[in-house]
Amino acid sequence: MSEIESLKQESRIFEPPADFVSNATISGMDTYRAMCSAAANDYEGFWAALARKNLSWHRPFTKTLDESEAPFYKWFEDGELNVSYNCLDRNLQNGNADKTAIIFEADDGKVTKLTYQELYERVCKFANGLKSLGIKKSDRVVIYMPMSIEGVVAMQACARIGATHSVVFGGFSAKSLQERIIDAGAVAVLTADQQVRGGKHLPLKAIVDEALALGGCEAVKHVVVYKRTGDAVKLTAGRDLWLHELVEKQAAACEPEWVSAEHPLFILYTSGSTGTPKGVQHSSGGYLLWAALTMKWVFDIKPADVFWCTADIGWVTGHTYIAYGPLAVGATQIVFEGIPTYPNAGRFWETIQKHKTSVFYTAPTAIRSLIKAADATPEVHPSKYDLSSLRLLGTVGEPINPEAWMWYYKNIGREKCPIVDTFWQTETGGHMISPLPGATPMVPGSCTLPLPGIMTAIVDEAGHDLPDGQGGILVVKRPWPAMIRTIWGDPERFKKSYFPEEFGGKLYLAGDGAIRNEKTGYFTITGRIDDVLNVSGHRMGTMEIESALVANPIVAEAAVVGKPDDTTGESICAFVVLKRSRPTGDEARQIAKELRDWVAKEIGPIAKPKEIRFGDNLPKTRSGKIMRRLLRVLAKNEEISQDISTLENPAILEQLKQAL
Ligand code: WTA
């Protein structure tokens, strides 16, 4: 039985615990349904009321949704606000000045705490520092920083002055960084000397230097360096400066730059099925509204909570649920520098115990690897830790298999914490389909129901609604405030990728397949329907990896497919044809290693193929099209049962069967 088949038959249902329900922000399914009806009856009125109630506006908006240039939707456009004002100043006015905003847990376990007042001052000084360099509203600033208080401060400082940030994950290579700097047209790069992960010091500033030296980044006038480790780095006079020197003389207050709700808060690059990564552009007002609302609805955040999202600020999860959402609702949150397995695989549980974490949000891939570790090393089994502070758990980034869900529920939540399996994407800005912890009965492996106001549906290739129980294409039928606004610099690609003509240009295409249960109406995500891979919750395009491989002078052709993996969800398998004859044995292993390192240099270590197979050719149709579906079967080491009558060179399959 396939994974999907078994999910369809998943019949275990877990009701939200009664004491959770009685205190929940959204309590009971009747409330959920009432909210959904309110949205259905008066869509704009529903969102307008929420936006007025949950955000502070410098100038109130008069029009909620502008569809005149669909699919370039605009929300609250004539309203003015500042995101950093909403995250900081508002907390000082609400009596949260002395409340802990951030508990920073360093790689080595050292703790630094910051109140909202202190965070406000840090952000203002950083913002004034950026202004002193001439950085102003609408300038783009690339942030290549580690998980740190400074990373969050940098993002908030950009928001304060109306500069649009683009955070690049610290695991991307110099070349990937350079491409993003150029595409965004950045005028400054904010970085650190190094990052510390798992006891190791890893370079950041040196990679920025390398990226800038690759050329094309002439618009970058400043590189600001946060001193994390103090190990030697080179500073280029006139361009580079230390963050501590930049901020030391700055005033601790900075008037926020009021911007339109549609002003681009950030650009975040993500992979698509074709071409180079897309710069997903997000708004200020609609985005922040949803970041705040989902903190309240999905994470049920209360004043006493200690929230911990383990994502990196380099990904969208770290934007919405570290840099913006928790601050917008005045929460206390943990910012974690390290990795789940250092100094041992009990680190997450130890940290939950240490800081009395109450709401914990992580990725299925981390859970699966910690299950293995707990089985192998009883000392780090979660039963060894006091996890009684937890009241709610969440997952994100990839489907969670029911066994991992059950383990999480029993061993971490001790059967008293609801689990919110949150489906969303870089493009959606925040959660889309998720249980509401005080309302929705949970089914392991299902992200359950769309949030109020989110009009998800499942359609066929022609865009027609499909009946429940029949798998199809996941779409969203109405625009929502936190949605992607465009692809930076490429509006045509935005339309083609997300609102294709085949669907009448009106449906948002998520790129995922989904199926809805006939009895419950619950959604289960069946995975990407395009050439996007999900490896440990990191999103990658097969095309990008193929392009990286063929950029190597010894490679003639390459095809990349995903292969199911117990821990990482999917792993990368590359089929490669060299310009020379097909290598075998030790030589093949040596070349495979060189190619893996090559990909790490071209894109970043996260894109390294786990497996490389060499052939004299790739399986192709008579018209020369690579038959990827056959490669997917070969990667799984399964026998080919499909029709191969259109295959020009069947003999090649035998060769490609052989793993190294
Ligand atoms: C996948 C991460 C199943 C999905 C926030 C989506 C999920 C892609 C889930 C977006 C989930 C995310 N269940 N699949 N709960 N959450 N995905 O842009 O394939 O990095 O399209 O955003 O991750 O990845 P992205």
Describe, in plain words, how this protein is organized in 3D.
The model has no long low-confidence stretch (mean pLDDT 96). The strands form nine sheets. A seven-stranded mixed beta sheet has the order 5-4-17-16-18-19-20, with helices on both faces. The protein has a five-stranded parallel beta sheet with strand order 7-6-8-11-12, with helices on both faces. A four-stranded antiparallel beta sheet has the order 21-22-24-25. The longest helix is centred in the C-terminal third of the chain and has 18 residues. It starts with a helix and ends with a helix. The protein has 660 residues and is of the alpha/beta class. Helix 5 packs antiparallel against helix 6, helix 5 packs across helix 7 and helix 6 crosses helix 7. It has 20 helices and 30 strands. 32% of the residues lie in helices and 21% in strands. The protein is globular. The structure holds 5'-O-[(S)-ethoxy(hydroxy)phosphoryl]adenosine (WTA). 5'-O-[(S)-ethoxy(hydroxy)phosphoryl]adenosine (WTA) binds next to helix 12, strand 20, strand 24 and strand 25.
